[in-house]
Each structure stands twice: as C-alpha cells, then as structure tokens.
Amino acid sequence: MKLSINGADVEVDDRHAKTPLLWVLRDVVGLHGTKYGCGAGFCAACTVLIDGRNTKSCQTATERAVGKVVTTVEGAAGPAVDAVRNAWYQGNVVQCGYCQPGQTLAAVALLEADPAPDDAKIDTWMSGNLCRCATYPRIRAAIHAAAHTLTNGAEPVPLVAPDEIDDRRLTPEELLDPVHPYIRIRPDGTIIAYSSQVEMGQGIHTGLATIVAEELDADFASVRVVNAANGRGPNGDVYGNPDLGSAFQLTGASNSMKGLWVRYRLAAAQARARLAAAAAEAWEVPADQVEVNNGVLRHGSGRQARFGELAARAEQLPVPDGVRPKDAADYKLIGREGRLRVDAVPKILGTTHYTIDQSLPGMLTAVVLHPPRFGATVASLDDQAALAEPGVTAVVPIEEGVAVVAETLADAQRGLRALVVAWDDTNAERRSSVELLAEHIRLLESGESAVTARDDGDVDRALTGAASTVDATYTLPYLSHAPMEPNNAACRMREDGVLEVWVGTEAPEYVKMNASSIAGIDKEQVEVHITFAGGSFGLHSSAEHDPTAEAVQVARALGWKHPIKLQSLREEEFKVGRYRAMAVHRVRAGADADGRLTAWHQQIVAAPTSVNLPFVRDVMFTNGVDFFTTTGAVDPPYAVENFRLESTNFESPIPTMVWRSVGNSHTEFARESAIDELAIASGRDPVDLRRELLAESPRTLRALELAAESSGWGSALPAGRARGITSSGFLGSSANVTEISLDDRGRVHVDRIVFALDCGRNVNPDLIRAQVEGGLLWGLSAAAWGEVVLGDGGDIVTQNFDTYPVMRMRSVPRIEIHLIDSTEPPSGVGEVSVPSVAPALANAIAALTGTRIRRLPFSKTIKVY
Amino acid sequence: MPEVNITPSENGPYIVSGPVTLTAPDGHVIEHPDPMAMCRCGGSSNKPFCDGTHATIDFDGTLAN
Fold first, then answer.
1. Cα–Cα distance between B23 and B26 in angstroms, integer?
2. Least confident of A116-125, A150-159, A664-673
3. From the CB of residue A79, how many other CB atoms can be counted at a distance below 10 Å?
4. What angle, rounded to 10 degrees, do the helices at A765-785 and A837-849 form?
5. Is the pLDDT assigned to residue B1 strictly greater than 60?
C-alpha cells in the first residue's frame, strides 16, 4: 500500500491493510505523536486529519487511508495550526498533554470548517475528544482566541520544540553536592532543574521552574525541568520526598509544592550564592558587591557575566555558609500571573515522550490478557492460534495473566484475541458489585469487624439527649482512574547487568523494588527513567502486579534478549483494578435545641488502600485503621465534643489504589452531606452551622465566607434553581457552592460551581486555577456518572469509556475560582477541589427537590447533565 | 434463520446482537463486535456506535409506547 503521510509517500506492507491506521503510524512509520487512549473510538486521542477532516485513526483501517492525505501532529502546518497551538500555549491549556495532539487537530479542523464558532458549536465539535485532566474550559477559550487571531489576519509564529535533555545518572561525587542533584547551569546559560516530583499533568515542573528562577534571579525562559530519579547515595536519596523526611522518592499526597518550597528554594539560593562567589573570585571583588539580575552577574566596577560563563567555576566552589532564600517582599515571579507551562510546547507539538512512546533497538511490544474476574488464574492455555498470528513472537504466562509478545502493538493485540484460556475461579471474587455493596452494608450494620479510630466524649449519651438527629447511610462505588494514557512500562537489561526501566511512575523506589525482586538483582542495579505520565491521578503509585512487573517478567522469560515495552490496553487496565475503594458510611449526628452540633458517630466500611503502598502503610495503617480510609472523617475541620469513628476493613481480591483525593473522595461525601442534613433537621442555614463549627479553623472559615459571598449565598434564585455548599480543611482550606437547575423532566443541570481556596502562597495563580478546575470536573464526572460495575459471577463489566462515562466538553458547568492570598507556605492543589463536588451537588439537589441522594453515582437516582 | 436482537437499553444505546452486516453510506462494510452498542441519543462522536455520551447529556430514551 502507498500512503500519503505528512506530504510524503510512504510504502506500507499489505499485511497491515486491516490494521488500524493508529498502529501503522506509531509502530510501522514511527510517528509517535498520535496517541492511543481506548482503541474503540470513544476518546479521540488518536485524532489525525484525513483529507483535512478530524478522524479517529484507531477506527480507520489503514487501507481506507490509501489515496487520501493523512496529516498527523508531526506534519500539521499552516496559519490555523499555528494559531491553535499558540492559543493552547498562551492559555496554559495543557496538563498531562497526552490528548492534546488530538485536541489541537480537532480544533484545527473546526476552524477550517467554521472560522468563528460559538460555544455551542465548539462544545459539539470537541466533545468527541476526551481529556481526563479536564482542560475543557481552557480548550474552549483557546479555540476562541485562535479564531480571533485568524480573523484579525495576524500571522502566528510556529511553536518550536526545545531539544531533549539527557538524563545521565549522577556520579557519587555529584550526589554529594548540595546543589548539583537539583540544579545545573550549562555554559549556554540553560538552567536545568532536576525534579524529584514527576510531571503527570499537575504542573509541578512549572512550579519548580518558578521557584528556581526566582531564587536564582534567573530568566524564567532559561529554566528547563526534567524528571529525576536514581538519587540514592551515601546520604540517602537526594530525591526523597522532602515532605516525608526524604525517606524515598514519591510524588503524591499533593505535597510536591510543599516539599519543593523547602528544598529547591534553598538549592537555588545556594546556586546563586555560589555564582556570586565565583564572580567575586574572578573579579577579585567582595561577593556581597556582586549583584544578580535576570541571569546576569554585575559589579559596580562595570564587570559583568552571564550565568553560563561562570557556571563551571561556581560548581567547583563550596556553598557559602548561611545562605537563605529570599524575603517574599523581593519576589518577582512567585505569586505573579503570566507564567506559561514549561512542558507545554513539546506536549502541544506531540514530541513529549510518554512511556508508550519508548523505542529501543530490538524492542518488542507485549500486551497482557488479564482474568475476567479478580483473583482468577490460568487453568489452561492454548496459544497455538496466537503464535500463528503474523508478527507474534512469544506467548508468556506471567503472574498477572498471559502476555503476548510481538513486533507491533497491533500484532500483539491480534495474538491476544486469538488466545484460548480457561480460568480457574478457585480464589476469584465471584460477587457482583450489587452483592459487594450488600456485604459492605451488612458489615456496617453488624459492626463485627469494626475498629475504633477515634472516640471523644460520650457519643451515645449526646445522641440520646439531642434535640434533632440525623441517621443516614451513604454508599459509593468502585472508581477507576482511567488516565488518557493507560499505564505502561518498558525495560531493558543492559550488558553491564543494570536493568533499565522507563515508566511514568509516582514512586520510583517501588519500581526499583518491584523490578529487582522479579529480576533477582540488587535494587540499586535498577535504573529508573521517569517518563512524562499521560495522567496518573494516583494510579501509578503501584508497587506490584503492574506494567513494570509485567514487562520485567516478560523480558526475563525471553532471556533478557529484547527490550520489552509493556502496553496496557484500555480494557485490560480496567480489569487490573486498582480502583478507588467502594465505601459505605453511616453517620449519626445530633444537635441541641439551639441547633449546635453535639454528637457525631460515623462508621465506615471500605477496603484499605494504604496497605498496597510499601513504607506508607507502616505509618498509615495502624491498629487496624487505614488512614486512607478514614482521612476526612477522623480529622474533620469541625469541632465536635462527642465524636466516635469506627472503621471496618473490607476484604476482597479487588485491588484498590490511591485515587485523586484518596479517602476524602468518599469521607467528605458522607461528612458534608450529613452536616447539611443536620442543618435541615435543626432548621439552620448550612453556612451558619458551618460558621459556628469553624470557629477554631479561621482559614477554612474565611474560605467558607468567600465562597458564600461570591456565590450570592442567601440571595433569592429564580424558581427551579438552588445552591448547595460544602467546606473542607483537606490539604488547604476551601469551600464549594454549586448551583443547579431542574429541567421540565426532573433532571438536574449543573450550572455553576464557585470554589474558594486558601492553599498558602499562590506560586503560580493560573496553574492553581487549572488544577482546581480539573479537580472539580474530575469530581463531577465521578459523582454524576462514575462507577465500575462487576456483573453476575464477578465479571468485570466496565472496561472502556462507553460504560465508564467521563466528562466531555459539552457537560462542563461555569466555574469560578477565588484564591485567597496568603503568606503561609504553599500546599498542594491537584486534589484539593475533588471531594467537595459530590456533597455540594447532593446538598443542592436536596435543597431543590427535597430528595436526599445518599448513593453515588447520582445517575442511579437522578439524571445529571 | 439466525436470530438478530435489537434492545434499546434504558436511556442508552441500542444493543444489537446476532449476525448483521453494517454498511456505510459509501458502501464499505463496517466491522463491529457482537453484540454492538449503537448510538440512540445522537450525541455519540463515534457513530454509528455508542461512546457513552448519552449518560452525560440531555437525553431521554423513554420508549414512546
């Protein structure tokens, strides 16, 4: 077959005639900018232009592209392309970036068809393209901006991808330097910041660049950031999470900025002091007479030098004593608007390397067929038909299922479909999600395995004496992360016995433990290369039975002869689980005659999550209580004299994993719903009740007041509309007011979400807003429609986006974010807004309809759109 | 004669099972799984198939009779 791709004629073997164009582009032609997200036409991450029309390449047999003009992200060019890409960049649209080549091509096709689309047109056109970071509001704004640029006749300049930066492993001497592992300055003046925190969309690289540029007094544009790893040296892991005492490298718990704030401000200040010392030495002047501004060192004598000129000399000098970060009054970047994401351009241009894009000489691709029920194992395997498929080189039974190894993904997938496997259900989870929920409720009611997590005062007496009470049970389903890039891993055993692993992990230490134990080598013989993650949301925190484990098992089985790329198919990722746990809560609360909260008794049943995280479980699972189950319940922002919390650990082979906002994603639904129910029962305004309970939490109180005021809380709304409110001390201090309306069929439309947040010092306000927006839409998607279903006999029914509906552009409500300026150290913002959405919506629905919905997703009770 | 079943799911797609040929307006035969979910809400970006959009939009799939 002859194809026309990006203006060139490309000859492709006829055996690929029926292969989806996506895989021919990626694995045969070697164009990796076009992404796989679902393989079934649900997500459009694979969008290319065919004769100018945005088309899903995963649904296009390659033979159907013959005689047509195929344009991928690599070849797209012209005014509309440049206008779109510039608008994406200037609008800080990109987060994880994985879907953005598809999004931008769809936007280009839209603007070619309609040079001035309105919101409704944009929403309809773009709703095929999923984005789990939920960058939709910014995509919509960027399309308007691009349309404006084009109609004004402006000529946007093409974006240019910067060179890739080599991530050479540090030498032992370099590891001992206080600055070197974190910041290096090249002779050309490029400042490289080595981030201990993986960039998975949350924008931490841009936050780091801001801190480094600020403390170095460098030009922000000169700072480049890379994911760092392999930092273990004589003094521990230089990339160990600073907020966890540097014990081991981990990105999670929204503590990245909190940790970088300490470590990298100091390292950058030290680097600056060393540059000044180098200048002083070279110019024979006192160091305190050297001024630093925007990447240039100057002395009153007229001497001056750029950073790059003195960097090598500075590296040889000791760090001067007593270096401290700047006073906040001197900030030029921190807290200011205008920073554009440092990772945006390569992501927009499709040149960012995600794990799926890893390519090595001789590399083979593997996919794994996982059991259809959790805990089932292979009883018998017939791999003859699979091995007969062209391109398939091996079938390897592994602990997690059966791996098919092939030259390309499409070959491997055909092989996987040809496998004949009988499953042994001896240890399988055979219960459906309905039966599992019933068992959670039974355990809640019997209390037979309950452990007391906290017990203050006398709850029973206070409840008996209460003037008004609430007794309510809340249920929440299993949820999947479903990031746009399914979790992948690649590995290669080098001739020197070092096992290299490429993976977009949140926990490189887990990767080393996992890979080394399977390979039978020392942990430090594993070298991790952290790729950009196409979303994670907690999923990539796994320590076992994940793509890393699968890749290493396959490579080992093939005698380490081939580098292996293990690619997760969307269906297989759903079948691996690692869900947000199903959870059931019962809250009994009481108020006195004045409506003051006097008693709170909460019981929780959920599978524990921290037990799946080495080291973390040692401190988070204590005395039978999982903090990841009880967070948000055991430590509410409200002061209650009589308080008891009991927790029961549900047992099942269904794996659980931290999921954006972890336990708060369910505990706050129960807590904030129950507070609202109690306010109604005692005849109080929900804001008044919270105001009283937050007397000792001034920051959360301030967020509550700000959200209430900004949303017009208390003012009349037109008929058929209502508001719901929540407040939280989770990570930062926040409050959410959600405004809804009811249509003539009794269905709920979410019109507006107002979110007030105190997250300490606002390092980059626009990136904070982006995370809060994404978190709200993530939370809304889960609350409204999210549920992983196990059918009769435990069959995993939910396997792709058709049965796991996620937020699309046309369902995005109006979002208003109010940031509180603060001089406190910054706290994380990636998860902070997620837990508020479900209870705020439940409270609004109750206010509007009188119906209290205690079961998620809402779609089981009422339509939300 | 082989049996073909079409079931409009509750506020969701038509579930079509059995040996059916799906032909595009240009005459090419569209490959599909069995059973397949066919868009009923009009909102799919993956027509003629369902992409899950029905759950997230203003669609009422109540049968007329």
1. 8
2. A150-159
3. 16
4. 60
5. no
pLDDT at position A167 is: 67
Per the CB < 8 A criterion, the answer to whether A644 and A447 are in contact is no
Mean pLDDT of A337-359: 98
Q: Over the stretch A535-547, which tens digit does the pLDDT of each residue have? A: 999 999 999 999 9
Model confidence pLDDT, tens digit, residues A159-215: 999 988 876 788 888 899 999 999 999 999 999 999 999 999 999 999 999 999 999
Average pLDDT in the A622-639 region?
96
CB A252 within 8 A of CB A658: yes
**Pairing of β A304-306 and β A392-398:** unpaired
Tell me the shortest Cα–Cα distance from A45 to chain B, in angstroms: 12
Say if residues A793 and A432 touch (Cβ distance below 8 Å): yes
Q: Which two tokens stand for residue A25?
A: 């582009």
Exposure string for A729-762, b = 16+ CB within 10 A, e = fewer = bbbbbbbbbbbbbbeeeeebbbebbbbbbbbbbb
Contacts by residues A242-250 (CB-CB < 8 Å, ≥ 24 positions apart):
A242/A196, A247/A615, A248/A507, A248/A509, A248/A615, A249/A196, A249/A507, A249/A508, A249/A509, A250/A506, A250/A507, A250/A509, A250/A541, A250/A616
pLDDT of residue A55: 97
Identify whether the C-beta of residue A483 lies closer than 8 Å to the C-beta of residue A536: yes
Q: Is any Cβ of chain B less than 8 angstroms from the Cβ of A865?
A: yes
Rounded Cα–Cα distance for residues A391 and A411 (Å) = 5
What pLDDT, on the 0 to 100 scale, is given for residue A472? 98
Nearest CA in chain B to A742: B58
Minimal CA separation from B1 to chain A, in Å: 28
Dist. CA A686–CA A694, nearest whole Å: 12
**Do A246 and A236 contact (CB within 8 A), yes or no?**
yes
Length of chain B: 65
Strand runs (DSSP E) across chain B, as ranges?
A: 5-8, 14-17, 36-38
> Are residues A136 and A195 in contact, defined by beta-carbon separation less than 8 angstroms?
no
Cα-Cα end-to-end distance for chain B: 28
HEC states along A789-843?
A: CECHHHCECCCCCCCCCCCCHHHCCEEEEEECCCCCCCCCCCCCCHHHHHHHHHH
Q: Which pLDDT band, with edges at 50, 70 and 90, does A234 fall under?
A: confident
**B56/A743 touch (CB, cutoff 8 Å), yes or no:** no
Asked if B37 and A64 come within 8 Å (Cβ–Cβ), the reply is: no
Residue A46 identity? C
d(CA A703, CA A311): 45
Q: What is the mean pLDDT of residues A113-133?
A: 97
Angle at A21 between CA A20 and CA A24, to 5 degrees: 100
Q: What is the mean pLDDT of residues A15-25?
A: 97
By three-state DSSP, how is residue A229 classified? coil
Chain A CB contacts of B52 below 8 Å = 42, 801-806
How high does pLDDT run on average in chain A?
97
Judging contacts by C-beta atoms under 8 Å, the chain A residues touching residue B49 are 40-41, 802
CA–CA distance, A730 with A711 (Å, rounded to integer) = 21
Going across the sheet that includes A296-298, the strands are A291-293, A296-298, A304-306
Residues of B with CB under 8 A from a CB of A: 11, 13, 28, 31, 37, 43, 45-46, 49-53, 55-58, 60
What global pTM score does this model have? 0.98
Tell me: the pLDDT tens digits for A706-754? 999 999 999 999 999 999 999 999 999 999 999 999 999 999 999 999 9
C-alpha to C-alpha distance for A464 and A368, rounded to whole angstroms: 56
* Cβ proximity of A98 and A354 under 8 Å: yes
Nearest to A668 by CA among A631, A638, A703, A642: A631
Is the CB of residue A734 less than 8 Å from the CB of residue A779? Answer: no
Q: How far does A667 lie from chain B, in Å, by closest CA? A: 25
